[in-house]
């Protein structure tokens, strides 16, 4: 397993394919029936886990991701299983402590992962070293991925992302002990001739096998893969046709026929692949709602100018739709390259793609850098590692000034060094729910949604408000089957004279589920000026999950003081007080889903 011998194909159907096309919503019960058959195909490996799988299973599907992995391992016994790991950020959106990294890798290895594809959004080895060592310590295959990005022109080259940049990364990663390298082209930006040049040059300077992971997004992927094969790439990623193309991987079937009889013939059986595809066609219609595509075209010809990976584009569309601002998509697309340049040209991959994407959305909706997520602020202090190019001090000043952050320390060392151990604390915090290390890790990775998931799984939270979209029943997997109310309750802010009530309606029978205690509003809404900022009402500026208050009732605050933290677009946003005054009421509960305009606090 530690050498990838003749040319092979990695199948991504069970991970990246549905992550790219269906927001990672494919349920285990729909993959299980063909898992054993997929194992017989002869893929070099199967990517089944990681990336958004862990997040989507716990956040939306109420499915235990560890159980999914163990089940895959049971059904897939010959083909090595691979996962995508975001370096120090594991399967989350921030850097975790070293003890969490060690435990997560160890548990993933024990539960069934053979090949760890480890990457860092900034290609910074500081963020890779701990996870890489953990993989080696567990005796598993360490594949280190280099995120492929382009500077501006859409071609390899330019001041940042030149051929030398990639060769330099490859040499460093090989020295760090990589068993293989992967060029990870999240947005389908790698053009066929650049792929030929890049793979040929890599084969000259490194000895470990090279794998290519690309996306079809721009329409180049099939050609790119073929040129990479001609240049001697060892493995390429592809997936079954029903989940291929668009923003996903190239399809495996035409590749098999293309290579038949050549020296790179992967010798996979076409009929078997077609049968497997037929099965997928039979179960996929119910997921059609997740195909976020208003367009007829299966390729995105604008990708070469806006460089936005598929997952990011579909997130932007759904975020803007929820915020009733889908008409501003073009402005957001225009803002992204500007914001990216200002923030040091990070590759647009998780979590940088979410950070840049949500910043661009905020820039368009609220004004440039008027609202900045805590993650972007941390990025600017160096907590995410070193950006490919320096961020102008001017930008840092704008961001930090507008937030009046007391002390901004910029760091210049491995960010993981600065994070206190987290595992023991997490263990304590969930002690009354579980002592299972896999479950503790779910909480350590996602304190808010992970806790919600664990409560659902253990039958403690039957009415949990899930983000799961409508029309699918949620059941917890594992030992218990806990039916959970599947549809979101709808909530309304109601004012009767000068008293505010929050009313929740059951979407099925339209009954009122709950009415909050009345809160007297000192300024009746009919007298409020349209400028929401001055009337003392702190409202949610966008849909999201309310995380916590940073103040207590009756506390005196100044305009601009941080009041509450909202998770929106997977970013944490600190919401400032709209005025000087006293906190009269704090209205929502941590973990509650809020929509744009929901009242969060009243300051008088
Ligand atoms: Co991908």
Distance between the ends: 65 Å
Largest sheet: 8 strands, parallel, barrel
Number of helices: 20
Shape: globular
What is the CATH homologous superfamily assignment of the domain at 490-603?
A: RNA polymerase II/Efflux pump adaptor protein, barrel-sandwich hybrid domain
Helix content: 25-40%
Characterize the structure shown.
The structure is a single chain. With 604 residues, this protein is of the alpha/beta class. Strands 1-2-3-4-5-6-7-8 form an 8-stranded parallel β-barrel, surrounded by 7 helices. Strands 11, 12, 13 and 14 form a 4-stranded antiparallel sheet that branches. The longest helix is centred in the middle third of the chain and has 15 residues, at 352-366. It is globular and about 75 Å long. The model is unreliable at 464-489 and 520-532 (pLDDT under 50). The structure holds cobalt (II) ion.
In summary, what is this structure?
The chain is α/β, with parallel strands linked by helices. Residues 16, 186, 213, 215 line the site of cobalt (II) ion.
Structure characteristics:
single chain; 604 residues; alpha/beta; OB fold (Dihydrolipoamide Acetyltransferase, E2P); 8-stranded parallel β-barrel; 4-stranded antiparallel beta sheet; 20 helices; 22 strands; binds cobalt (II) ion
Walk me through the topology.
Layout (H helix, E strand, L loop, with lengths): L7 E4 L1 H10 L5 H14 L3 E6 L1 H10 L3 H11 L5 E5 L12 H14 L3 E4 L10 H9 L3 E7 L15 H13 L4 E6 L6 H14 L4 E5 L6 H10 L4 E4 L13 H8 L10 H14 L19 H4 L3 H13 L6 H14 L9 H15 L7 H8 L11 H11 L19 H7 L7 H9 L1 H11 L16 E2 L7 E2 L5 E7 L2 E7 L6 E4 L3 E2 L16 E3 L4 E6 L6 E2 L4 E7 L2 E6 L4 E6 L6 E2 L4 E5 L1
Parallel strand pairs: 1-2, 1-8, 2-3, 3-4, 4-5, 5-6, 6-7, 7-8
Antiparallel strand pairs: 9-10, 11-12, 12-13, 12-14, 15-22, 16-18, 16-21, 17-20, 18-19, 20-22
């Amino acid at each position: 397993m530690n050498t990838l011998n003749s040319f092979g194909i990695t199948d991504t159907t069970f991970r990246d394919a549905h992550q790219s096309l269906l927001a990672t919503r494919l349920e285990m019960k729909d993959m299980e029936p063909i898992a054993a058959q997929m194992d017989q195909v002869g893929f070099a490996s199967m990517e089944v886990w990681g990336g958004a799988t862990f997040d989507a299973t716990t956040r939306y599907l109420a499915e235990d991701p560890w159980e999914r992995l163990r089940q895959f391992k049971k059904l897939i016994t010959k083909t090595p299983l691979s996962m995508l790991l975001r370096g120090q950020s594991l399967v989350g959106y921030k850097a975790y402590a070293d003890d969490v990294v060690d435990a997560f890798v160890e548990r993933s290895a024990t539960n069934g992962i053979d090949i760890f594809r480890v990457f860092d959004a900034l290609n910074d080895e500081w963020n890779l070293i701990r996870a890489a060592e953990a993989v080696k310590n567990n005796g598993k295959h360490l594949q280190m991925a280099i995120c492929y990005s382009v500077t501006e022109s859409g071609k390899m080259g330019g001041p940042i992302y030149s051929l030398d940049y990639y060769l330099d990364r490859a040499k460093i990663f090989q020295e760090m002990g990589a068993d293989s390298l992967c060029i990870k082209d999240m947005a389908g930006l790698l053009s066929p001739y650049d792929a030929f040049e890049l793979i040929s040059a890599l084969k000259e300077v490194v000895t470990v096998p090279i794998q290519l992971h690309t996306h079809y997004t721009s329409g180049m992927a099939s050609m790119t893969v073929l040129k990479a094969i001609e240049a001697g790439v060892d493995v390429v990623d592809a997936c079954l046709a029903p989940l291929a193309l668009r923003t996903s991987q190239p399809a495996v079937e035409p590749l098999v026929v293309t290579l038949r009889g050549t020296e790179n013939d992967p010798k996979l059986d076409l009929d078997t692949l077609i049968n497997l595809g037929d099965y997928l066609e039979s179960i996929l219609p119910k997921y059609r709602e997740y195909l976020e595509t208003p367009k007829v075209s299966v390729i995105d010809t604008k990708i070469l100018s806006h460089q936005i990976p598929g997952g990011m584009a579909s997130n932007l569309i759904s975020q803007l739709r929820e915020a009733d601002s889908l008409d501003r998509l073009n402005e957001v697309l225009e803002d992204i390259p500007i914001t990216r340049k200002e923030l040091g040209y990070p590759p647009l991959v998780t979590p940088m793609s979410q950070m840049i994407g949500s910043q661009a959305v905020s820039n368009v909706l609220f004004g440039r850098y008027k609202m900045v997520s805590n993650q972007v602020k941390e990025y600017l202090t160096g907590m995410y590692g070193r950006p490919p190019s320096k961020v102008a001090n001017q930008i840092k000043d704008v961001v930090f000034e507008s937030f009046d952050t007391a002390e901004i320390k910029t760091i210049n060392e491995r960010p993981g060094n600065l994070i206190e151990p987290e595992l023991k604390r997490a263990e304590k915090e969930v002690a009354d729910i579980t002592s299972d290390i896999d479950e503790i890790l779910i909480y350590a990775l996602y304190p808010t949604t992970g806790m919600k998931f664990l409560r659902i799984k253990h039958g403690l939270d039957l009415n949990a408000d899930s983000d799961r979209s409508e029309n699918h029943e949620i059941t917890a997997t594992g030992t218990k089957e806990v039916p959970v109310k599947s549809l979101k309750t709808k909530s309304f802010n109601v004012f009767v004279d000068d008293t505010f009530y929050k009313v929740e309606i059951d979407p099925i029978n339209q009954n009122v589920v709950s009415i909050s205690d009345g809160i007297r509003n000192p300024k009746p809404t009919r007298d409020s000026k349209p400028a929401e900022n001055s009337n003392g009402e702190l409202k949610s500026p966008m849909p999201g999950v309310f995380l916590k208050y940073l103040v207590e009732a009756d506390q005196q605050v100044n305009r601009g003081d941080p009041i509450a933290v909202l998770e929106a677009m997977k970013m944490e946003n600190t919401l400032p007080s709209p005025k000087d005054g006293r906190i009269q009421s704090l209205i929502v509960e941590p973990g509650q889903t809020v929509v744009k305009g929901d009242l969060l606090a009243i300051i008088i």
